[in-house]
Protein backbone atom coordinates (compact mmCIF):
# COMPACT_ATOMS: atom_id res chain seq x y z
CA UNK A 1 0.00 0.00 0.00
CA UNK A 2 1.30 3.46 -0.88
CA UNK A 3 2.22 5.84 1.91
CA UNK A 4 -0.07 8.87 1.99
CA UNK A 5 1.83 12.03 2.93
CA UNK A 6 -0.45 14.64 4.48
CA UNK A 7 0.76 18.17 5.25
CA UNK A 8 -1.38 19.34 8.18
CA UNK A 9 -1.72 23.10 8.55
CA UNK A 10 -3.48 23.67 11.85
CA UNK A 11 -4.09 27.42 11.52
CA UNK A 12 -5.51 29.95 13.96
CA UNK A 13 -8.48 30.37 16.32
CA UNK A 14 -10.43 27.09 16.42
CA UNK A 15 -7.96 25.64 13.86
CA UNK A 16 -5.81 23.73 16.39
CA UNK A 17 -8.91 22.33 18.17
CA UNK A 18 -10.52 20.91 15.03
CA UNK A 19 -7.12 19.81 13.68
CA UNK A 20 -6.58 17.74 16.85
CA UNK A 21 -9.93 16.16 16.24
CA UNK A 22 -8.92 15.39 12.61
CA UNK A 23 -5.65 13.80 13.72
CA UNK A 24 -7.53 11.55 16.17
CA UNK A 25 -9.86 10.49 13.37
CA UNK A 26 -6.98 9.92 10.93
CA UNK A 27 -5.30 7.69 13.52
CA UNK A 28 -8.49 5.68 13.94
CA UNK A 29 -8.94 5.38 10.18
CA UNK A 30 -5.36 4.26 9.74
CA UNK A 31 -5.85 1.53 12.38
CA UNK A 32 -9.22 0.41 11.10
CA UNK A 33 -8.32 0.42 7.40
CA UNK A 34 -4.58 -0.28 7.59
CA UNK A 35 -3.75 3.01 5.89
CA UNK A 36 -0.14 4.17 5.90
CA UNK A 37 -0.49 7.84 6.81
CA UNK A 38 2.41 10.18 7.26
CA UNK A 39 1.17 13.42 8.90
CA UNK A 40 3.57 16.38 8.70
CA UNK A 41 2.77 19.54 10.63
CA UNK A 42 3.25 22.84 8.85
CA UNK A 43 2.62 26.26 10.23
CA UNK A 44 1.04 29.30 8.64
CA UNK A 45 -1.37 32.05 9.59
CA UNK A 46 -1.64 34.89 12.08
CA UNK A 47 0.40 33.23 14.85
CA UNK A 48 3.14 32.32 12.37
CA UNK A 49 3.23 35.91 11.12
CA UNK A 50 3.72 37.11 14.69
CA UNK A 51 6.38 34.53 15.46
CA UNK A 52 8.36 34.48 12.21
CA UNK A 53 7.36 37.68 10.44
CA UNK A 54 5.78 35.71 7.57
CA UNK A 55 2.29 34.24 7.34
CA UNK A 56 3.38 31.48 4.94
CA UNK A 57 7.07 30.69 5.39
CA UNK A 58 9.03 29.01 2.60
CA UNK A 59 9.71 25.96 4.84
CA UNK A 60 5.95 25.37 5.07
CA UNK A 61 5.57 25.67 1.30
CA UNK A 62 8.43 23.14 0.87
CA UNK A 63 6.73 20.58 3.13
CA UNK A 64 3.39 21.09 1.40
CA UNK A 65 4.97 20.71 -2.04
CA UNK A 66 6.65 17.43 -1.09
CA UNK A 67 3.44 15.95 0.37
CA UNK A 68 0.61 14.25 -1.51
CA UNK A 69 -2.03 16.52 -0.12
CA UNK A 70 -2.62 19.36 2.34
CA UNK A 71 -5.27 19.31 5.07
CA UNK A 72 -5.77 22.84 6.30
CA UNK A 73 -7.49 24.32 9.31
CA UNK A 74 -8.74 27.91 9.06
CA UNK A 75 -6.36 30.83 9.44
CA UNK A 76 -7.37 34.31 10.58
CA UNK A 77 -6.68 37.75 9.13
CA UNK A 78 -3.81 36.37 7.03
CA UNK A 79 -6.18 34.21 4.92
CA UNK A 80 -5.28 36.14 1.75
CA UNK A 81 -1.56 35.58 2.36
CA UNK A 82 -2.01 31.89 3.09
CA UNK A 83 -4.89 30.22 1.30
CA UNK A 84 -5.31 32.58 -1.63
CA UNK A 85 -1.54 32.38 -2.19
CA UNK A 86 -1.45 28.57 -1.94
CA UNK A 87 -4.30 28.22 -4.42
CA UNK A 88 -2.43 30.32 -6.96
CA UNK A 89 1.03 28.91 -6.21
CA UNK A 90 -0.09 25.27 -6.50
CA UNK A 91 -2.53 26.04 -9.33
CA UNK A 92 -5.44 24.54 -7.39
CA UNK A 93 -7.89 25.88 -9.91
CA UNK A 94 -11.11 24.11 -8.86
CA UNK A 95 -12.70 24.91 -5.53
CA UNK A 96 -15.35 22.29 -4.80
CA UNK A 97 -17.94 23.23 -2.23
CA UNK A 98 -20.66 20.63 -1.70
CA UNK A 99 -23.85 21.42 0.21
CA UNK A 100 -25.68 18.26 1.15
CA UNK A 101 -28.63 18.15 3.53
CA UNK A 102 -28.16 15.32 5.98
CA UNK A 103 -31.51 14.17 7.38
CA UNK A 104 -29.85 13.93 10.81
CA UNK A 105 -29.52 17.73 10.99
CA UNK A 106 -33.06 18.72 11.85
CA UNK A 107 -34.70 22.05 11.00
CA UNK A 108 -32.99 22.21 7.64
CA UNK A 109 -34.44 21.62 4.23
CA UNK A 110 -34.21 18.10 2.92
CA UNK A 111 -33.10 16.82 -0.44
CA UNK A 112 -30.49 19.48 -1.14
CA UNK A 113 -27.42 17.93 -2.77
CA UNK A 114 -25.56 20.52 -4.76
CA UNK A 115 -21.97 21.27 -5.63
CA UNK A 116 -20.49 24.71 -6.22
CA UNK A 117 -17.50 24.54 -8.56
CA UNK A 118 -15.72 27.83 -8.01
CA UNK A 119 -12.85 29.11 -10.17
CA UNK A 120 -10.04 29.50 -7.69
CA UNK A 121 -7.12 31.35 -9.23
CA UNK A 122 -8.40 34.56 -10.84
CA UNK A 123 -11.09 37.24 -10.59
CA UNK A 124 -10.80 40.04 -8.03
CA UNK A 125 -8.94 37.64 -5.70
CA UNK A 126 -5.83 37.99 -7.82
CA UNK A 127 -5.14 40.88 -5.46
CA UNK A 128 -4.38 43.62 -7.96
CA UNK A 129 -5.68 46.57 -5.96
CA UNK A 130 -4.43 50.12 -6.19
CA UNK A 131 -5.12 53.32 -4.36
CA UNK A 132 -5.24 56.73 -5.92
CA UNK A 133 -5.99 60.11 -4.53
CA UNK A 134 -9.59 59.90 -3.44
CA UNK A 135 -10.26 56.27 -4.29
CA UNK A 136 -9.12 52.75 -4.95
CA UNK A 137 -9.41 50.31 -7.83
CA UNK A 138 -9.34 46.50 -8.10
CA UNK A 139 -8.52 44.67 -11.32
CA UNK A 140 -10.62 41.67 -12.25
CA UNK A 141 -8.74 39.07 -14.24
CA UNK A 142 -10.72 36.48 -16.21
CA UNK A 143 -8.95 34.35 -18.84
CA UNK A 144 -10.30 31.97 -21.45
CA UNK A 145 -8.03 29.18 -20.24
CA UNK A 146 -9.22 29.39 -16.63
CA UNK A 147 -12.89 29.58 -17.69
CA UNK A 148 -12.46 26.61 -19.96
CA UNK A 149 -10.81 24.30 -17.44
CA UNK A 150 -13.25 25.16 -14.65
CA UNK A 151 -16.23 24.62 -16.97
CA UNK A 152 -14.80 21.27 -18.13
CA UNK A 153 -14.33 20.32 -14.48
CA UNK A 154 -17.95 21.20 -13.66
CA UNK A 155 -19.33 19.06 -16.49
CA UNK A 156 -17.15 16.16 -15.41
CA UNK A 157 -18.42 16.49 -11.83
CA UNK A 158 -22.06 16.59 -13.00
CA UNK A 159 -21.45 13.36 -14.92
CA UNK A 160 -19.58 11.64 -12.05
CA UNK A 161 -22.16 12.62 -9.44
CA UNK A 162 -24.84 11.07 -11.67
CA UNK A 163 -27.67 13.00 -9.97
CA UNK A 164 -29.59 15.58 -12.02
CA UNK A 165 -26.74 15.84 -14.55
CA UNK A 166 -27.21 19.59 -14.72
CA UNK A 167 -24.72 22.46 -14.80
CA UNK A 168 -25.74 26.06 -14.19
CA UNK A 169 -23.18 28.75 -14.99
CA UNK A 170 -23.57 31.67 -12.58
CA UNK A 171 -22.39 35.14 -13.61
CA UNK A 172 -23.50 38.71 -14.26
CA UNK A 173 -22.73 38.97 -17.97
CA UNK A 174 -25.55 41.47 -18.55
CA UNK A 175 -23.53 44.08 -16.63
CA UNK A 176 -19.94 42.82 -16.67
CA UNK A 177 -19.99 42.24 -20.40
CA UNK A 178 -16.28 41.68 -20.97
CA UNK A 179 -15.26 39.58 -17.94
CA UNK A 180 -18.44 37.64 -17.17
CA UNK A 181 -19.27 37.80 -20.87
CA UNK A 182 -16.14 35.74 -21.56
CA UNK A 183 -16.96 33.31 -18.73
CA UNK A 184 -20.49 32.82 -20.09
CA UNK A 185 -19.31 32.34 -23.69
CA UNK A 186 -16.70 29.76 -22.71
CA UNK A 187 -19.20 27.85 -20.53
CA UNK A 188 -21.58 27.69 -23.50
CA UNK A 189 -18.80 26.39 -25.76
CA UNK A 190 -17.89 23.70 -23.21
CA UNK A 191 -21.60 22.82 -22.85
CA UNK A 192 -21.84 22.24 -26.59
CA UNK A 193 -19.18 19.52 -26.22
CA UNK A 194 -21.00 17.92 -23.25
CA UNK A 195 -24.51 17.48 -24.55
CA UNK A 196 -25.34 14.64 -22.17
CA UNK A 197 -25.40 17.24 -19.37
CA UNK A 198 -28.22 19.76 -19.15
CA UNK A 199 -26.90 23.35 -19.23
CA UNK A 200 -28.36 26.66 -18.12
CA UNK A 201 -27.13 30.07 -17.04
CA UNK A 202 -28.27 32.25 -14.15
CA UNK A 203 -27.35 35.75 -13.02
CA UNK A 204 -25.65 35.72 -9.65
CA UNK A 205 -28.31 37.80 -7.90
CA UNK A 206 -31.02 35.42 -9.14
CA UNK A 207 -28.88 32.46 -8.06
CA UNK A 208 -28.62 33.92 -4.54
CA UNK A 209 -32.40 34.19 -4.44
CA UNK A 210 -33.06 30.76 -5.97
CA UNK A 211 -30.75 29.08 -3.46
CA UNK A 212 -33.24 30.17 -0.81
CA UNK A 213 -36.40 29.75 -2.89
CA UNK A 214 -35.78 26.38 -4.51
CA UNK A 215 -32.36 24.92 -3.69
CA UNK A 216 -33.34 21.44 -4.88
CA UNK A 217 -33.25 22.59 -8.51
CA UNK A 218 -29.46 22.83 -8.30
CA UNK A 219 -26.99 20.10 -9.07
CA UNK A 220 -23.66 21.62 -10.15
CA UNK A 221 -23.13 25.40 -10.20
CA UNK A 222 -20.02 26.72 -11.89
CA UNK A 223 -18.93 30.27 -11.20
CA UNK A 224 -16.09 32.72 -10.83
CA UNK A 225 -14.07 33.18 -7.66
CA UNK A 226 -15.86 35.94 -5.73
CA UNK A 227 -19.43 34.81 -6.53
CA UNK A 228 -18.45 31.25 -5.56
CA UNK A 229 -17.07 32.42 -2.23
CA UNK A 230 -20.30 34.20 -1.35
CA UNK A 231 -22.78 31.65 -2.70
CA UNK A 232 -21.02 28.77 -0.95
CA UNK A 233 -21.48 30.34 2.51
CA UNK A 234 -25.14 30.82 1.63
CA UNK A 235 -25.47 27.21 0.45
CA UNK A 236 -23.71 25.97 3.61
CA UNK A 237 -26.30 27.73 5.74
CA UNK A 238 -29.09 25.91 3.91
CA UNK A 239 -27.80 22.55 5.09
CA UNK A 240 -26.79 23.22 8.69
CA UNK A 241 -24.25 26.02 8.61
CA UNK A 242 -20.52 26.48 8.36
CA UNK A 243 -19.88 23.84 11.03
CA UNK A 244 -20.67 21.09 8.52
CA UNK A 245 -19.32 22.66 5.30
CA UNK A 246 -16.17 21.11 3.82
CA UNK A 247 -14.30 22.15 0.67
CA UNK A 248 -11.59 20.96 -1.68
CA UNK A 249 -9.09 22.98 -3.69
CA UNK A 250 -8.08 20.74 -6.54
CA UNK A 251 -5.43 20.98 -9.26
CA UNK A 252 -4.26 18.40 -11.76
CA UNK A 253 -1.88 16.64 -9.35
CA UNK A 254 -2.36 18.11 -5.90
CA UNK A 255 -5.27 19.00 -3.64
CA UNK A 256 -5.85 20.98 -0.47
CA UNK A 257 -8.85 20.34 1.77
CA UNK A 258 -10.18 22.91 4.24
CA UNK A 259 -13.42 23.78 5.98
CA UNK A 260 -15.36 26.65 4.36
CA UNK A 261 -15.45 28.48 7.69
CA UNK A 262 -12.84 30.79 9.15
CA UNK A 263 -10.99 30.75 12.47
CA UNK A 264 -14.14 31.64 14.50
CA UNK A 265 -12.35 33.85 17.06
CA UNK A 266 -15.62 34.28 18.99
CA UNK A 267 -15.55 30.63 20.13
CA UNK A 268 -11.82 29.84 19.94
CA UNK A 269 -10.45 28.07 23.03
CA UNK A 270 -13.91 27.25 24.41
CA UNK A 271 -13.84 23.62 23.26
CA UNK A 272 -17.18 23.92 21.45
CA UNK A 273 -16.08 24.29 17.80
CA UNK A 274 -17.83 21.88 15.47
CA UNK A 275 -15.14 19.55 14.11
CA UNK A 276 -17.43 18.00 11.47
CA UNK A 277 -16.63 20.42 8.61
CA UNK A 278 -12.97 19.47 8.90
CA UNK A 279 -13.82 15.78 9.34
CA UNK A 280 -15.89 15.94 6.16
CA UNK A 281 -12.75 17.43 4.55
CA UNK A 282 -10.91 14.30 5.69
CA UNK A 283 -13.63 12.27 3.97
CA UNK A 284 -13.22 14.24 0.73
CA UNK A 285 -9.44 13.89 1.02
CA UNK A 286 -9.72 10.10 1.36
CA UNK A 287 -12.01 9.95 -1.68
CA UNK A 288 -9.54 12.02 -3.69
CA UNK A 289 -6.62 9.82 -2.63
CA UNK A 290 -8.61 6.64 -3.37
CA UNK A 291 -9.15 7.82 -6.94
CA UNK A 292 -5.61 9.09 -7.43
CA UNK A 293 -3.80 6.06 -6.08
CA UNK A 294 -6.45 3.41 -6.79
CA UNK A 295 -6.50 2.67 -3.05
CA UNK A 296 -9.64 0.74 -2.15
CA UNK A 297 -9.02 1.01 1.62
CA UNK A 298 -9.01 4.80 1.38
CA UNK A 299 -12.35 4.66 -0.43
CA UNK A 300 -13.84 2.45 2.29
CA UNK A 301 -12.37 4.74 4.97
CA UNK A 302 -14.10 7.74 3.33
CA UNK A 303 -17.41 5.91 3.24
CA UNK A 304 -17.12 4.76 6.86
CA UNK A 305 -16.21 8.27 7.99
CA UNK A 306 -19.27 9.82 6.35
CA UNK A 307 -21.48 7.15 7.97
CA UNK A 308 -19.84 7.80 11.34
CA UNK A 309 -20.46 11.54 10.98
CA UNK A 310 -24.12 10.89 10.15
CA UNK A 311 -24.59 8.62 13.17
CA UNK A 312 -22.95 11.24 15.36
CA UNK A 313 -25.13 14.04 13.99
CA UNK A 314 -28.22 12.10 15.02
CA UNK A 315 -27.31 12.31 18.70
CA UNK A 316 -24.25 14.40 19.55
CA UNK A 317 -24.02 18.00 18.38
CA UNK A 318 -22.07 21.13 19.14
CA UNK A 319 -23.98 24.37 20.01
CA UNK A 320 -23.91 25.70 16.41
CA UNK A 321 -26.26 22.80 15.54
CA UNK A 322 -28.44 23.32 18.59
CA UNK A 323 -26.68 20.76 20.80
CA UNK A 324 -24.58 21.12 23.93
CA UNK A 325 -21.72 18.73 23.23
CA UNK A 326 -18.08 19.71 23.09
CA UNK A 327 -15.59 19.27 20.23
CA UNK A 328 -14.08 16.35 22.14
CA UNK A 329 -17.44 14.63 22.71
CA UNK A 330 -18.36 14.87 19.04
CA UNK A 331 -14.91 13.57 18.05
CA UNK A 332 -15.15 10.65 20.48
CA UNK A 333 -18.58 9.79 19.14
CA UNK A 334 -17.20 9.66 15.57
CA UNK A 335 -14.34 7.43 16.78
CA UNK A 336 -16.78 5.08 18.56
CA UNK A 337 -18.89 4.81 15.40
CA UNK A 338 -15.81 4.08 13.29
CA UNK A 339 -14.78 1.32 15.65
CA UNK A 340 -18.28 -0.17 15.43
CA UNK A 341 -18.29 -0.33 11.62
CA UNK A 342 -17.96 -3.90 10.44
CA UNK A 343 -14.67 -4.39 8.57
CA UNK A 344 -14.67 -6.56 5.50
P1 LIG B 1 -15.96 32.45 10.56
O1 LIG B 1 -16.33 31.39 9.58
O2 LIG B 1 -14.71 32.26 11.30
O3 LIG B 1 -17.15 32.59 11.64
C1 LIG B 1 -18.48 32.95 11.29
C2 LIG B 1 -19.44 32.43 12.39
O4 LIG B 1 -19.55 31.01 12.27
C3 LIG B 1 -18.94 32.70 13.81
O5 LIG B 1 -20.04 32.99 14.62
C4 LIG B 1 -18.31 31.39 14.22
O6 LIG B 1 -18.32 31.15 15.60
C5 LIG B 1 -19.16 30.37 13.47
N1 LIG B 1 -18.37 29.17 13.12
C6 LIG B 1 -17.45 29.06 12.13
N2 LIG B 1 -16.92 27.83 12.13
C7 LIG B 1 -17.50 27.15 13.14
C8 LIG B 1 -17.36 25.82 13.65
N3 LIG B 1 -16.50 24.93 13.11
N4 LIG B 1 -18.11 25.47 14.71
C9 LIG B 1 -18.98 26.32 15.27
N5 LIG B 1 -19.17 27.59 14.82
C10 LIG B 1 -18.43 28.00 13.77
O7 LIG B 1 -15.97 33.81 9.76
P2 LIG B 1 -15.47 35.28 10.18
O8 LIG B 1 -15.86 35.57 11.59
O9 LIG B 1 -15.94 36.15 9.09
O10 LIG B 1 -13.88 35.23 10.07
C11 LIG B 1 -13.01 34.99 11.16
C12 LIG B 1 -11.58 34.91 10.63
O11 LIG B 1 -11.44 33.78 9.76
C13 LIG B 1 -11.16 36.14 9.82
O12 LIG B 1 -9.91 36.53 10.28
C14 LIG B 1 -11.10 35.62 8.37
O13 LIG B 1 -10.09 36.28 7.62
C15 LIG B 1 -10.75 34.17 8.58
N6 LIG B 1 -11.19 33.29 7.47
C16 LIG B 1 -10.30 32.34 7.05
C17 LIG B 1 -10.65 31.44 6.07
C18 LIG B 1 -9.68 30.41 5.63
O14 LIG B 1 -8.68 30.15 6.29
N7 LIG B 1 -9.89 29.76 4.50
C19 LIG B 1 -11.99 31.47 5.44
C20 LIG B 1 -12.87 32.47 6.01
C21 LIG B 1 -12.47 33.35 6.99
MG1 LIG C 1 -15.35 32.33 2.17
Condensed summary:
The protein has 344 residues and is α/β, with parallel strands linked by helices. It is 44% helix and 19% strand.
Describe the 3D structure:
With 344 residues, the protein is an alpha/beta fold. Helix content is 44%, strand content 19%. The protein has helices at residues 15-33, 46-52, 58-65, 79-89, 144-161, 179-192, 204-213, 225-238, 276-293, 296-315, 327-340; strands at residues 4-9, 37-42, 69-72, 94-100, 113-119, 129-132, 135-138, 166-171, 198-203, 220-223, 246-250, 255-259. α1 (15-33) crosses α10.
SSE inventory with pairings:
Elements: E1 4-9, H1 15-33, E2 37-42, H2 46-52, H3 58-65, E3 69-72, H4 79-89, E4 94-100, E5 113-119, E6 129-132, E7 135-138, H5 144-161, E8 166-171, H6 179-192, E9 198-203, H7 204-213, E10 220-223, H8 225-238, E11 246-250, E12 255-259, H9 276-293, H10 296-315, H11 327-340
Parallel strand pairs: 1-2, 1-3, 3-12, 5-10, 8-9, 8-10
Antiparallel strand pairs: 4-5, 4-11, 6-7, 11-12
This protein binds 1,4-dihydronicotinamide adenine dinucleotide (NAI) and magnesium ion (MG).
Salient structural properties:
two-stranded antiparallel ribbon, 44% helix, Isopropylmalate Dehydrogenase, 344 residues, binds 1,4-dihydronicotinamide adenine dinucleotide, 11 helices, alpha/beta
